Amino acid sequence: MNFLKIIFNFFKKALIFLLVLLLFDIVFFTIIPTDIKSKLYNNRAHRIKSFYYHHDLRPMASFYDHWGYERYRIYTNNLGFKDSSNREVKFKNKNILFIGDSFTEGVGIKYEDTYVGLIESNLKSKNNDIEVLNAGVQSYSTSIYLSKLYHLLERKKLPITDVVVMISGGDIFDDYYKYLDLNDDYILNHVDQKNKYIIKIINFLKSNTLTYQLITRITPPKVIPSLIKSIFSEKKIKTNYNEKEENLFLITNDEINQMTFLDHKDYAYLYSSKEFEDWGKNAIEKSLNNLKQIIKLTSEKNINLNIFYLYEPVILLRKPNKIYFDYLITGLENLKTKNVNIEFIRNMYDEYENAYEAYKNLFFINDIHWNKRGNTKVAKEILEKIDLN
């Protein structure tokens, strides 16, 4: 009995110590100036879990990320949308909501240089009674678009007048393999943590403790060497965007052909008869069904809906099987109605001599995402194809 009492007292004291340490950590991290805190944050701290649709960005966040050619600062507004600053959204007479995956979030560049930010600048220069919002986040797919739109329109009652959905080829794979079905309440099922209260605790600790920032920077252990190296190579990290792009622009066509993203399983359904029959066809149908439900949801609320499908570098550099690709494109075109516009982002490539030149000019080299120039072209093509005024 004495032994059990000793063990109990030990764990009791350990628990009290950890709680006091946690409380001190939270208080200390709270009083740190915002500019310093932004530099301390691990970017994963602001990519939080969502009970309703798997993951999101933390509202009123400010942190640095490094993807592409430079280190850049990310801000979110009070709704948890990537924005030009931490701000309270003031809805206007016309409120346009963009939703998509990493292409729409605009990884690698600050908000003002994303296609959503550029469209916002264009529209507001003509009419200040317009609000433009970017609900896109990395690794989203049509399953999340549907779940998140339902959450924003039905639960939060946001007065959205227009929705623009940007679909990528990777959405089809994610819909089939990464995310499960939505239940009757439009809550997305998935294999990660689903308890609402545990999710809130995890999100709080990620965003409000120094301990989390330190642990995530040194785990897994294999990142420690690169972390130490980054400390001594700060000047390289701050390399000018244009300088970095200019150096990478010297890449050869053969080197582009060897890039790993060209062989991602995400796009295999467009090239392999086995992949198409095993899962691709069913995955396309699942994604199309999600879009049909989005059409129904927005139609019931008299919201203008525009759906775009983007031609990614994989499709640009390696021509897909016509039968499989047509199956997807035809399925999308069949969604078009009097009140639903279906468009494709592909005209931006026409001015280049070949696919390789288009890729080097419009995308981050060795990646699939649009660079600053690419985002500018996308914004221009969208504004030419639909009327958002």
How is the secondary structure organized here?
Elements: H1 2-31, H2 34-40, E1 47-50, E2 54-57, E3 62-66, E4 71-76, E5 82-83, E6 94-99, H3 102-105, H4 115-124, E7 130-134, H5 142-155, E8 162-167, H6 170-178, H7 196-208, H8 210-218, H9 224-231, H10 234-237, H11 241-248, H12 253-257, H13 273-300, E9 304-310, H14 313-317, H15 322-333, E10 340-345, H16 355-362, H17 372-385
Parallel strand pairs: 6-7, 6-8, 8-9, 9-10
Antiparallel strand pairs: 1-2, 3-4, 4-5
SSE order, one letter for each helix or strand: HHEEEEEEHHEHEHHHHHHHHEHHEHH
Q: Which quaternary structure do these chains form?
A: single chain
Q: Which stretches are poorly predicted, pLDDT < 50 over at least 5 residues? A: 234-238
Largest sheet: 5 strands, parallel
Using only C-alpha atoms, the radius of gyration works out to 23 Å
Number of helices: 17
* Global morphology: globular
Strand order of the largest sheet: 7-6-8-9-10
Based on secondary structure, the structural category is alpha/beta
Structural domain count: 1
